[in-house]
Amino acid sequence: YAASESPNQLYLIQNDALQKTWPLPAPPTALLAAGDRLYVGYSGLSRIDIWQMPAGTVLGSFQTPEGFYAYSMALDAARNILLAVGFQRVLGFDLTSKDIIIDQYTQSYQTLALDEKLGRWYVNDYDESTSTSWMAAFDIGTGTLVGRAAIGQDPRQALVHPVTGRLYAACSWDGAVWEI
Fold this sequence. Notes:
Elements: E1 2-4, E2 9-14, E3 17-23, E4 28-34, E5 37-42, E6 47-52, E7 57-63, E8 72-76, E9 81-86, E10 89-94, E11 100-105, E12 112-115, E13 120-127, E14 132-139, E15 145-151, E16 155-160, E17 167-171, E18 176-179
Antiparallel strand pairs: 1-2, 2-3, 4-5, 5-6, 6-7, 8-9, 9-10, 10-11, 12-13, 13-14, 14-15, 16-17, 17-18
């Protein structure tokens, strides 16, 4: 799946070919594919839509607080939680009730990773006083900060390797991938 703005569209690409397109109600900011579901966050809309794929049917939405736009998402299937990071805030939604069950303010912007085995989520954290970027680790059950590690500047994406459990963060300003 891919999405674009101007036009606001969602694309299904398979075997190196465009298979189908769907119009979107606003510019897309984040996509997360999980099984037959696709979660779509938007700029200008305070919600995350749940799509049934590949049919392209919108099944419902998670309502976000006004002005919160998801820039990255992760799914903790074991705990039944969808995590979304927006500007300086991380939200966690119960997949069944669609209620917000995690609401954590951070110095994050767009980088989110999940370690289901350890029950931790990671976001970028920026310290203006030292101009240092960090990856901060939070316990998913309590929201407690459990650690952080300095990384390069302007992290854009992060992931936890499913076998090794190592955290990787891609930083645009220094053009490096950091292994933690």
